[in-house]
Amino acid sequence: MRLGSRSTPGDAEDNLSEALPLVPPPQTSIHGSLDGSWSWRRGTAVFVASLAALTLLHFDALDSPPTKDQAMGLWMEANFLAESGYDYAALLQQPGEFQGGPRLYVISVLPTFLALLMKVTTTPQDAIFAYHVFTLACAAVVLAVVFELIRPATSTLIAVLCCGALATTPAFSVQVELCGMDVPLAAVVAVSAWWTLRGRLFLGAGSSLLAFLVKQSGIFVTAATLVAALWLVARPGNSAPVVSRGRAVVAALLCLVLLLAELIVFFSGISGLGRF
């Protein structure tokens, strides 16, 4: 602008734009959390730290026996499998939950896993201790995934505080000590959510199937993954993460097939549980 010339608002804006570099608009918290990638070194460190902290918090419960509900459910079926040599055909002929039989979670992988622990350990106390450690590890997986989801959108300190709040929440803390199925289910749900939010819908769908095979209530995870895929189909250009319409359609169809299969299995009566 020459001396003596009159400045206009347009000239002021041009001068300001030349003086200041162009900065992209800040991302929203959703975009920020999705743009952050998993760091195996950081994630492993968070997992180890969470496992150590949870072990200290629940050290007195490492040798506590399962509660009555767990003993008459998961542990009864696992004991039947261990004593029968994994005779699933005989298990299908046993009475269900309401008749006091061991056929409760036929489609779940946890009774088989627990039966394996009973086989490789020497005493029942060792099996109880081993399953407690397994539950603590699953809880540490949940905290590690939560940390990785929160940290890119906030800060490391906020992510640590959120994980600490979750770990000391009464509902979460009690489940960690129950020797049940909910904490392993929560670990698989967290992994499925991570893959889905990262746009890896096929891995998210596979994880949702694993959630159903851990506990029947995992069917809701498959339904949620289906909703996420359909949302990406409807908004492929304005959604985060960016997923092509074709991949989202295929993922939605896969989730729909899995959901229908899980519904058929649940209502077929193959499990003696009859409830979530």
Poorly predicted sequence stretches spanning 5 or more consecutive residues: 22-36
- What is the total tally of β strands? 0
Report the portion of residues in β strands: under 5%
The helix-and-strand class reads mainly alpha
| Topology pattern, helix = H, strand = E | HHHHHHHHHHHHHH
The proportion of residues forming helix, as a percent range, comes to 55-70%
For the sheet with most strands, the description reads:
none
End-to-end gap: 75 Å
Shape: flat
Count of alpha/pi helices: 14
Averaging pLDDT over every residue, what do you get?
84
How many domains is the backbone divided into? 2
How would you summarize this macromolecular structure in one to three sentences?
It contains 14 helices and no strands. With 276 residues, the protein is mostly helical.
Describe this structure in words.
The protein is 66% helix and 0% strand. With 276 residues, it is mainly α. It folds into two domains: 145 residues, no CATH class; 88 residues, no CATH class. The longest helix is centred in the middle third of the chain and has 27 residues.
